[in-house]
Amino acid sequence: MGDMAEEVGGHVKGPNAWRQAFAAIALAGALGGALWASEELSGNGSGPPPATCSDEDAGKAAGRVTGKQLCEALHRPDLAALLGTPTEIAKAASGGDSSFKPAGGKEIATPSAQVEFDTYTVTLSATYDGLPVAGSHTLLGDGAEQRKVLDRPAVLYSDRTISIRFRLDGSDSETGPGVPARVLTVAQDAKDSGGSLDVTLWRADGAVPDDAVLLRVAEKVLPTVPGWTAGR
């Protein structure tokens, strides 16, 4: 039997290795169903219908954005044009609510959303960890850049997706390194009082995404996320 591989984005800012591991697992779990569905539809001969936001794991919490809300902000009518591929139609769109609890710590909400096109896949996530964004570039290795985006502290850096291979014979899936991704982490408020919104971009052909594309998407999408207030 053959097998099938999909790319799932995983990224995180901050000083702790467990955060990096969790980010990849959380996004894979929340978004894997939509990725599988898009692969099945692509071979039916008639082409998939336009993607709409699905709520993979419905959840609501006071003062926090949900995965579905993130998907609705990300899956905007001009997203393909912002990506520089105006003729493409989204193949899949989904949002999910997840969280994790570090040993001895409090539960941290990490809602996320993803929209997939033929050329690009873009994710939008929120992390309610209470950590500031300013200064985190020093913890992300060479090449991470401290930025100011939409008048808020931000960090631009490189990451890599996770490749998940599903075998059609039903045996265990395999994971490994995927394609290069570029990530923009922006403080949830201008005072950088804790938490972030993250936009991640990668290409199906494995080329490194253009930072200008990532920044263009972020500058249009982030102000539409519920709870975003300019200058605050």
Structural commentary:
It holds the Pfam family DUF6215. InterPro entries: DUF6215. This protein has 232 residues and is an alpha+beta fold. It has a domain at 67-224. Helices cover 21% and strands 32% of the residues. The chain contains four helices and eleven strands. Strands 1, 2, 3, 6, 7, 8, 9, 10 and 11 form a nine-stranded mixed beta sheet that branches. A two-stranded antiparallel ribbon has the order 4-5. Strand 4 (99-100) and strand 5 (108-109) form a beta hairpin. The longest helix has 26 residues, at 17-42. The radius of gyration is 17 Å and the shape is globular. Residues 1-45 have low confidence and may be disordered.
Task: Sum up the structure in keywords.
232 residues, single chain, DUF6215, alpha+beta, disordered N terminus
Number of strands: 11
Helical content class: 10-25%
What is Rg?
A: 17 Å
Head-to-tail CA distance between termini: 55 Å
β content, as a range?
25-35%
Query: What summary fits the major beta sheet?
Result: 9 strands, mixed
- Shape by Cα distribution: globular
Structural class: alpha+beta
The helix/strand series, from N terminus to C terminus, equals: EHEHHEEEEEEEEEH
Low-pLDDT sequence parts = 1-45
User: Can you give the mean pLDDT?
Assistant: 77
List the total number of helices. Answer: 4
Quick summary:
The protein is of the alpha+beta class.
Give the topology, please.
Elements: E1 3-8, H1 17-42, E2 54-57, H2 67-74, H3 79-82, E3 92-96, E4 99-100, E5 108-109, E6 112-116, E7 120-127, E8 145-149, E9 152-167, E10 174-187, E11 196-203, H4 211-221
Parallel strand pairs: 2-3
Antiparallel strand pairs: 1-9, 3-6, 4-5, 6-7, 7-11, 8-9, 9-10, 10-11
